[in-house]
What does this fold into?
Amino acid sequence: MAGITVIGLGSGGMDQLTLGAWNVIRETGAIIVRTADHPIVEQLAAQGIRVESYDRLYEEHASFPDVYAAIAEDLLRRAASASRDTLYGVPGHPSVAEASVRLLKTRCAERGIPCRLIGGESFLDQAFLRLGFDPVEGLLLLDAGEVTPARIQPELHLVVTQVYDRFTASETKLALLEHYPPDYEIVLASGLGMGEQERIERLPLEDLDRRDRYGNHAMVWVPRSDEPALRSRSFERLREIVEILRSPEGCPWDREQTHESIRKNLIEETCEVLETIDRYDPEGMCEELGDLLLQIMLHAQMEAEAGMFAIGDVIQGLNEKLIRRHPHVFGDQAAGDAGEALSRWEQVKAQEKKAKGLELAGRSLLDGVPPALPGSLTALEYQKRAAKVGFDWDNVQEAFDKLLEETAELRELIAVPADESQAARQHEELGDVLFSVVNIARFLNIDPESAMAAVNRKFYERFRYMEERLQAAGKTFRDVDLAEMERLWQEAKRQV
It folds into this structure.
């Protein structure tokens, strides 16, 4: 049965074409090439080989995937009516950075059409030779359209292919700048192994998109580096450091820690992150988020040592959960607004609980709220869950009326001489007042903890203003009466 034979044309002239490939081409007498922009095309024609190219398709289609799809369909059409294999020639090696070949192999398999490949010298062979690096040191090969900060590993040589134009070069540069300094030396190469067309230039990364030599044969080489400063941006380096700290050769203090001994650290670091958020301190937030991440890494490392799970399992579980709970993003469902998106999340979450057997008879709707939450957030969560089944006020005014009712009850208790029993009731009634305040916050869509943090911060700043004013006058609070304090407070309100 006739099929399609894909031939690697090498990266230069016929001296780079394998003998096996040349024999097949010569016997067939005709070949269709992806592009005529290759030194071997004229040489094949000079040998009497009929050469046809798909260059016209690049003009007829708006994107490369569309071009490759059109190439595959044309080759399949030709193969269906041919008595012998149709030859398809691609630059370099057919299995190296050839998206059209990957697509063709898939479609041939779907239609039962034979597809065989004959290798050729790839541009990588020329890169190793002309640029002088050894892939055994570690090599990452990426298409320019697939370069993202998450995929870059500075300890590996990076070769970026298909740097078609200035825009592609700019996008590549931006991704690389997430890991490398602007003056990091890279190589922009074009036409490797193509004689007079070959260009090799060493330049700082920041200049990558300031050249004019881009195109099908352009590539970028970013040499590997063991510089600690470069590796420090990687998550893998963090995992490695934490593992070393907990190892027998690591830090004695870190080795002695347990989940219980550093439990309070997790709470403290979380609070410190919240503090930077409340005062909007980006620099502090960056540092405190790192401290919080360290606590997560330490807890995961302890479990890895016990053989229970590793940080990779944590990340995998989170990634899968995020995808699963966002069917309106990663699936075929839709969400028109934030409320509908939250509803999708809750639906999937409920299905997950049911699958785990967590929705058992007798289980309360209020179960599952973390006991370590601040009281106001626990109250807020209880109220939200109760509201889902209709146990709620109709509007914020009714919630405010309830607050006035609870405040009046507390005032009545305060008016009565307090004994031990009365103190307990005051404690309870004050709780009712605070619970009612949280209800109002919920109706106003205000986070009560955030509101409390804001008023605490405001009080601190105004009180500090009063202290500074008194200090400037050589006084303390003991030197002034309440009326003077009130005057200073009102002044602080105007200033802060």
